[in-house]
Amino acid sequence: MSRKQQLLQEEGFLIVREGVLSSQEVQRALEEISAIIHGRVPYAEKIMVQVEPAVQKGIREAPSREWAVRKLMSYVPHSPILTEIARHPKIAALLRELLAEDVKLLQDMAMLKPPQVGSPKTWHQDCAYFPIEPPRVLGFWIALDQATRENGCMEVIPGTHREPIPHETIVEDAFPDYGIPKDHPVFQRTAVAVELEPGDALVFDGLLVHGTGPNRSDRPRRALQLHYVNARCRYTGRNRPPELLQIIGRSYEGCV
Q1: What would the 3-class secondary structure string for the chain be?
Q2: Angle 89-98/3-11 helices, nearest 10 degrees?
Q3: Predicted confidence band at 53 (pLDDT cuts at 50, 70, 90)?
């Protein structure tokens, strides 16, 4: 068992600090995100753009449209630049080592937490959002800016990836979210703030408990978040999702 495999098995996460993305790839991703937000690419309308709830409700003001956006979602396969990152050779190599030989992309997002108005994300497990059995899901959270406690870096609770925890509607900053009840005993454990440099990645099990704080700094905290699934898993939801992008290996009949 490699050191990376051991960390993922024991702690539920590992940090890749040698840089999954180069500085040039980070810059290209930031430029592409900006182009999508401002509608400068023909496929911009096909990508979901979510505005910060406090800005949308007029509780807080943002200096520009770009600094009002909380999330982009489903940019694969529309954006060639961001799709290329989702299929990045370094990511593919880690997927082979840590997840499976046959892997599909389950979900793609850009988490943008803008300066001053960036809202928190309540504590949760990603697999609570995915009707996948067994829950063999691996997340890649790739920093595009320096991510610190001050601007809302990822925080994780090590070792909380061994079983699912019931989720419910949670109120954060006066807005509803979906997460783990605040009185759950999992919060007796110590959380770890994962501060990253641009291009670094947090790789984590889909059952790891994690969340982020608000961004009250003057710096953005932008990141790409990609979820991958073992291609042998089954989708158990009512409505089958669109066909998932094959990243490595092959597909299996009756599976995702």
Answers
A1: CCHHHHHHHHHCEEEECCCCCCHHHHHHHHHHHHHHHCCCCCCHHHCEEEECHHHHCCCCCCCCCHHHEEEEECCCCCCHHHHHHHCCHHHHHHHHHHCCCCEEEEEEEEECCCCCCECCEEEECHHHHCCEECCCEEEEEEECCCECCCCCCEEECCCCCCCCCCCEEEEECCEEEEECCCCCHHHHCCCEEECECCCCEEEEECCCCEEECCECCCCCCCEEEEEEEECCCEECCCCCCCCCEEEECCCCCCCC
A2: 70
A3: very high
Residue 104 has pLDDT above 80, yes or no: yes
Q: Is 159 exposed, middle or buried (0-12, 13-18, 19+ CB in 10 A)?
A: middle
Give the per-residue pLDDT at 1: 86
At a CB cut-off of 8 Å and minimum separation 6, what does 211 contact?
A: 120, 121, 122, 123, 124, 154, 155, 179
Decide: pTM greater than 0.85.
yes
Q: 3-state secondary structure string, 128-159?
A: HHCCEECCCEEEEEEECCCECCCCCCEEECCC
Q: Are 67 and 115 in contact (CB under 8 A)?
A: yes
